[in-house]
Design goal:
Layout (H helix, E strand, L loop, with lengths): L1 E7 L3 E8 L2 E2 L4 E4 L6 H14 L6 E5 L3 E2 L2 E2 L14 H9 L3 E5 H12 L8 E7 L3 E7 L2 E3 L8 E2 L2 E2 H5 L1 H7 L3 H19 L3 E5 L6 H4 L8 E4 L6 H16 L1
Parallel strand pairs: 1-5, 5-8, 9-14, 14-15
Antiparallel strand pairs: 1-2, 2-3, 2-4, 6-7, 9-10, 10-11, 12-13
């Protein structure tokens, strides 16, 4: 079965058709509208579906806590999404069945099923590095959803406001300087959950060799093998699972 996977981020909305964990269409990226209101974002998802001439199930990774399709937070997207049924809004815009999950959870699902954490034993944590810091927590491959650990406080500031990819660029930090900060974030997560494995996703995961010497955690640390396609693949995977379980 195929599904359209859409990764909705703070700076860009990316989508492609996915089958068996692989992109089988072109990958389309459209800048996230400003303001990123429900109508504006849903219109972008509909544009991606039209450009791919796609009519079928859509899975969306969304930067918020998602509870039964409803956004409960809005850290890196317009506050108008709070308490909005994301699935309903996007379904109305696309006229397609829609499943929405947290964006980092989507990336983690992809890595568990098709990437760096296949057949995992123990506790695995996915950390996505981008506009914010996303997190996805798994035990023996089973997801505990909506952890959103980037909002934990570290040094009197939210972790993602201290060591996200956007912070590195905005403050002009060297990889060594930023890596020291990011290590503090991982050490905090490790003290709380003691994962056996961290998988790092997002665009910066390709530069792991530049900051890996700064990482002092006990857990194994790996770059996501699906890189920045993980969110698309995981969102599509969630949609396919939902359809097959009906």
């Amino acid at each position: 079965m195929q599904a359209l996977g859409v990764d909705i981020g703070g700076s860009g909305i990316k989508g492609a058709i996915v089958e068996n964990g692989k992109l089988v269409s072109e990958r389309i990226r459209i800048p996230t509208p400003s303001p990123s209101t429900p109508t504006a974002v849903a219109d972008v998802v509909a544009t991606i579906a039209r450009r791919l001439d796609y009519r079928g199930p859509i899975g969306c990774g969304f930067p918020a806590v998602i509870q039964h399709g409803v956004a409960r937070t809005a850290a890196n997207i317009d506050a108008g999404w709070i308490d909005c049924n994301v699935e309903t809004v996007i379904q109305q815009a696309t006229d397609c069945p829609v499943i929405v999950i947290n964006d980092a959870d989507a990336a983690g699902l992809a890595e568990v099923q098709f990437g760096a954490a296949q057949d995992p034993n123990g506790v695995m944590m996915m950390v996505t590095i981008g506009t914010g810091l996303g997190s996805a927590l798994f035990r023996d491959g089973v997801l505990f959803p909506n952890t959103e650990l980037g909002h934990l406080m570290l040094n009197n500031i939210k972790a993602e406001h201290y060591a996200s990819g956007a912070v590195r660029k905005r403050e002009g930090l060297s990889w060594k300087e930023w890596g020291a900060r990011f290590n503090e974030v991982l050490e905090l997560y490790e003290r709380l959950f003691w994962p056996d494995l961290f998988i790092l996703g997002g665009g910066d995961c390709k530069k792991l060799h530049k900051f890996e010497p700064c990482l002092k955690v006990r857990a194994d640390v790996r770059a996501a093998t699906l890189e920045n396609q993980a969110g698309i693949i995981g969102a599509a995977t969630a949609a396919i699972r939902h359809r097959t379980q009906k």
